[in-house]
Amino acid sequence: MRFLDACRRKRTDRVPVWFMRQAGRYMPEYRKLRQKWSILQLAKTPELACEVTLQPIDAFPVDAAILFADILLPLEPMGAKLRFAPGPVIDNPVRAAKDVARLRDFDPDEGLGYVAESVRLIRRELDGKVPLIGFAGAPFTLCSYLIEGGPSDDFRTTKAFMAEQPQAWDKLMRLVRQITADYLWMQVRAGAQALQLFDSWIGALTPEQYRRHVQPHSRFVLESLRGSGVPVISFGTGTGGFLEDFASAGGDVIGVDWRVDLDAAWKRIGRKAIQGNLDPILLLGDRKPLKEAVADVLRRSGGKPGYVFNLGHGILPPTPVDNVKAVVDWVHAWRPS
Fold first, then answer.
1. Residue tagged active-site, from 2, 5, 21, 307
2. For this structure, is 25 an active site residue?
3. What is the pTM of this model?
4. How high is the mean pLDDT of the chain?
5. Is 34 considered catalytic here?
6. Is 145 noted as a catalytic residue in this protein?
7. What is the pLDDT of residues 123-140, one digit of tens each?
């Protein structure tokens, strides 16, 4: 399969392409389901999670499916009171050492067994058409949600916790990193053929904050998966200021956002595969500049083995479905000059 081959830096007949959030709110089929079911209900019901995962596979010739779930699912079995209103809200955030102490470790097969069942069901339905990517949120991103109580513009509470309560921070990250590693291993056992670790908020940190307080924990997760037999993608946004450190934490493939040129990023990460990095905003606009931007990203890949086309972050809800299909077609049609 060309996606898996590219992740392993093997030459492929065409550039493989998939999209973060390719199963989601921009698709009318998904919006129809959301009229009846909440996000958590969709994620926790294997038949529904399977249906959502397969929607883009039925609509476009993408080269991989990604499990429909939510990165915050592990927080509930830990003891977080999670709800969506409409975005994620945690009603009992972690603000002190005593809050860390009340969090629970758990066996993912018990606390998140429905995800494993979704993976098994999706694999059966895919029937070898394309590989299935499993995923999890990285320790920093999960901990920032726990501490902030939801999304944040500046992560001031998280950064204060990190700086002022370093022992509690370390204890929290150690708990979350082990749960994350176990959760991803569970997905592999269920049949996931690749994994992606999402560090969606990592760009809020300074390089020193990342190296001191986060990198060892991300490395723990990524290194723990080395024997899994599946390629692992490490993705973060805003990593341009410490991309070398981010890449050195581990992973077979490094996902980069649109804030750095793909060719420059590839030189900086060294002998690894790379994934990215079209600005998702461009999918909202006219076809001509969109096609030019796709061609520029592809040109920067140089036609070298080890490249996976993707966005620099997830597909946005207003994105026209036809634009997504057009990008897939352009990527597959491209040949290096």
1. 21
2. yes
3. 0.97
4. 97
5. yes
6. yes
7. 999 999 999 999 999 999
What distance in Å separates the CA atoms of residue 30 and residue 242, rounded to the nearest whole number? Answer: 36
For residue 150, count CB atoms less than 10 angstroms from its CB and return exposed for 0-12, middle for 13-18, buried for 19 or more.
middle
What is the torsion angle, in degrees rounded to the nearest 10, for the CA atoms of residue 171, residue 147, residue 112 and residue 54?
A: -130
Give catalytic status of residue 183 as yes or no.
Answer: no
Catalytic residue from among 5, 26, 30, 70: 70
Active site residue 287: no
pLDDT band at 297; cut points 50, 70, 90: very high
Q: Tell me the residue ranges of DSSP E strands in the chain.
A: 65-66, 82-84, 88-90, 132-137, 194-199, 232-236, 253-255, 273-278, 307-311
* Alpha carbon distance 48, 42 (integer Å): 5
Q: Which residue has the tokens 């916790």?
A: 161
Task: Identify the CA nearest to 147 among candidates 135, 138, 156.
Answer: 156
Q: What is the pLDDT of residues 221-251, one digit of tens each?
A: 999 999 999 999 999 999 999 999 999 999 9
pLDDT band at 86 (very low <50, low <70, confident <90, very high): confident
pLDDT of res. 337: 80
C-alpha distances out from residue 126 to 58, 62, 65, 320, Å: 10, 13, 9, 25
Look at residue 275 and tell me whether its pLDDT is greater than 90.
yes
pLDDT of 180-211, one tens digit each? 999 999 999 999 999 999 999 999 999 999 99
Distance CA 64, CA 131 (A): 5
Q: Which of 8, 9, 14, 25 is catalytic?
A: 25
Region 156-180: what's the mean pLDDT?
A: 97
Q: Which of 145, 183, 210, 307 is catalytic?
A: 145
**What are the beta bridge partners of residue 234?**
197, 254
Give the bridge partners for 274, in sequence order.
254, 307
Kindly list the structural domains of the chain, giving each domain's residue range(s) and its CATH number in brackets, ordered by start.
2-333 (3.20.20.210)
CA distance 274 to 297: 12
Coil, strand or helix at 294: helix
Of 34, 95, 174, 219, the active-site residue reads 34
